[in-house]
Design goal:
This protein has 1 helix and 8 strands, in the order αββββββββ. The protein is mainly beta. It has a single domain, classed as Sandwich (Jelly Rolls), CATH 2.60.120.380. β4 and β5 form a beta hairpin.
Length: 137
C-alpha cells in the first residue's frame, strides 16, 4: 500500500521545517461589524486586513437582517470572490462558514484588505458580522 504525503508532511519526513503558519500556527480572527445602511453595488466595504504570510483558513458571516435583495461576494480588489463567490445571505442569526478552495490554505505573499462587493443595494438597517480566521506565526 502506497503512502501519500501532503506538502508539509513531506517536509517534516525529510527533516525540513514546515512553512510558518502551516504547522503549529496560531489561529487568529479579524472580527468586523458592518452597520447596514443601503450600501450599493458600486460601494466597497472593507471588512478585514490580513498580514503578509497569513494562511487564510475560512470566514464566517452572520446577519440579523436577510440580504435576499443583494448577493454579496467576499474577496479583494480585483478578485471579488476570492473567499466567497457572489451569493445571497438569507439565513438570519445563523452563521454561514465560507471559503473558496483557491483562496484558503495558502500563505499570502502580501498584506490583503478583504472587501465585500454587493450586487445591489444592501438593506437600509441591520448588522452584518464578518469573521476571517487565519493562521499566522
Amino acid at each position: 500500500m502506497a503512502n501519500t504525503l501532503g506538502a508539509q508532511m513531506t517536509k517534516l519526513d525529510a527533516g525540513t521545517p514546515p512553512d510558518p503558519g502551516f504547522v503549529d500556527g496560531s489561529v487568529r480572527v479579524f472580527c468586523e461589524e458592518v452597520t447596514l445602511a443601503g450600501q450599493g453595488a458600486a460601494d466597497t466595504i472593507e471588512v478585514a486586513r490580513l498580514p503578509k504570510g497569513a494562511v487564510p483558513l475560512y470566514g464566517v458571516l452572520s446577519t440579523d437582517t436577510s440580504l435576499a435583495a443583494a448577493n454579496i461576494a467576499i474577496g479583494v480588489s480585483g478578485t471579488a470572490g476570492k473567499y466567497r463567490a457572489s451569493a445571497a445571505l438569507t439565513a438570519v442569526d445563523s452563521p454561514e462558514v465560507f471559503g473558496v478552495v483557491a483562496g484558503v490554505g495558502g500563505a499570502l505573499t502580501a498584506e490583503e484588505t478583504v472587501i465585500i462587493s454587493p450586487s445591489a443595494a444592501l438593506p437600509g438597517s441591520g448588522t452584518l458580522r464578518v469573521m476571517m480566521a487565519y493562521a499566522f506565526n
